[in-house]
Amino acid sequence: xxxxxxxxxxxxxxxxxxxxxxxxxxxxxxxxxxxxxxxxxxxxxxxxxxxxxxxxxxxxxxxxxxxxxxxxxxxxxxxxxxxxxxxxxxxxxxxxxxxxxxxxxxxxxxxxxxxxxxxxxxxxxxxxxxxxxxxxxxxxxxxxxxxxxxxxxxxxxxxxxxxxxxxxxxxxxxxxxxxxxxxxxxxxxxxxxxxxxxxxxxxxxxxxxxxxxxxxxxxxxxxxxxxxxxxxxxxxxxxxxxxxxxxxxxxxxxxxxxxxxxxxxxxxxxxxxxxxxxxxxxxxxxxxxxxxxxxxxxxxxxxxxxxxxxxxxxxxxxxxxxxxxxxxxxxxxxxxxxxxxxxxxxxxxxxxx
Length: 353
What we know:
This protein is of the alpha/beta class. Helices cover about 45% and strands about 20% of the residues.
C-alpha cells in the first residue's frame, strides 16, 4: 500500500513539473525570448532613425524591391510589399517585432508587381492605399500577368539554374542570381497568389497621422503614370519608389521622360537628408542628381544614333559607360536605350510634319 502511495506521489510531482515547464515555456514565448530574429534571407533591415526602417532587398532573395517600415506610435505602416509572399510575410513579422504594433497601413508606390504582390499578406489587418491610377492599373494588368507567369516562369527558372552552374564570370553570376530570386519568387508564390487591390485611393496627396508622427504621401509620376513618394518631413526622409534607383540601372521602358524629370526636380526642392530608393542602397539628395545624370546619358546616346540614322538594333552593341558599368540589372541598359530611341524618333518625325 505504501509503495502504491509513493508511486502516486511521484506521478503527481511529475505532472506538476511538466505543467511548470509548460507554463515557463509560454511565459518566455510571451515576452519574446523565442521570437523570430529580425532577419530575412530576402532583405536587410536598416534603421534610419527611431521607429523608421528601410528593408533593402538582397541579391538572390525574393523581395526584389525595397520597402519601408514606419512606427506611427499606435500602428505600423509598410511602404511597398515585395514580390514574393515569403518575403512579404517576413516583412510583416519583422515590422511588428520592431514596432510592437500591428500593421495598420500599407502603401503601394505604383502598380509594378515587385511592389504589390505581397499585399495579400497584409489584407486582413491593414488598409492598403494607392493612387486611383495605380489601383486601376493593378486591376487591369495583374490577372493576366499572374496567369502568364504560371506558364513561362518555371521554364525560365530552370534555365537560370542551369546557367548558374556553368557561369564563371563574376558579373554574369551576379546577374543570374538577381534574376534567380525574381523567378523563384514567381514560381513559389504562384499557387497561392491572389490579386489584392488597394482599399483606399487618392489623387495628389494624403497625410496619415499617427500618435507620434505623420507621413505625407505625394503623387508624382514618370516611372509610371502615377507614382507615390512617402515623405517624413520631421525626419527629412523620403521613400521614392522607382522614381529613384541607386546603383541599379533604372527601368525606363514605361517612363514618361518629361514627367520623370519634373518629379526629380520636385524631389530636389524638398528638405531631404536620406533617400530610400525603389532599388539600391540608402542614399542622399545627391543621388537624385545621379538619377538625372543617368537619364541624360541614355538620352544623349540614343539621340546620337537617331541623328546619325543608325538602326535601333545597333544599340545592342554599345558598351555600358562608366560609372554605370558595374551597376546591377545591366539588361535594362539596352532596353532603356531602345525606349529612348523610339521617343526621340517620334519627336523628330513630329517636328518635321
